[in-house]
Specification:
Length: 153
Amino acid sequence: MLTSPASAEAAWDSYSIDRQTVRPGETFTITMTLTNTETTDIVFSYEYIEPNWPMNVTPGIVEAVGCGGDVTDCSVSGKTAVFHPRVPIAPGDSRSVTFTARALPPPVPGSGPMRLSWSPYMYYEYDYTPGGPLHSRIHQAWVPQLTVETDYS
């Protein structure tokens, strides 16, 4: 299992994938974990994951088959998933969400392996006082560790 924070500073978001190679019909699961490094509760969180180019515009490579984790709701559509982790998240606590996709047969018979990489998006709000300011943090970027290669042999 590969695991890595999204950036050098960011201990608040981490990502992992359960396998590096899949064959047609096999699934892989991506886990995204949000840790509250603030001094107040996280009161809202939204997470999303989508494939990178060219997989995002190429049909028939993977299909989303499920989502879950410590969420109030999640949904999958095509190759993407949307999550609302359960809140509040107290300082020091974490919430993890999962996205599962299945590799499909090669789009062109005899195709070689394809590298499937993913971009997560995490957003949260914290330090909310009615009538006062609302603070937020966002991360959206390609995470190299979230790459799986198809094996069409």
